[in-house]
Amino acid sequence: MSVILYYPLKFAKYHLFDLSYQEILEFAWRPDRCESHSGESKLECSCDHGIIGLDDKNHKITKDGYLYCRHQLQGKVVLIEKPSFFTTGEILTGGYMKIIDSKTGDICYYDSVIE
Known about the structure:
Blueprint: H1 2-16, H2 21-24, E1 28-35, E2 59-61, E3 66-69, E4 72-81, E5 92-101, E6 107-113
Antiparallel strand pairs: 1-6, 2-3, 3-4, 4-5, 5-6
């Protein structure tokens, strides 16, 4: 019975409220592109996080949006577009975010994906 009520409530919450920073990690994210703090495109990105997976125990996001990996500050997370729970069979789920690297100021963009 609880499973029957859980998903409709989660669906309604998703559409009625913004995602909290902790809920961002309920989706998988893969690197898309990187640019320097001045806006120039970069081939080598300082935000070398790779895929940030579901229930990833190495990554934590604080309530004010700072990403930590293994207790080291990586940067500030900015959610650009909320991911969707529903897809049309594609790997991308429509979410888009950026992480501003705390050391270099590089901006790394991520797409949400089905893991």
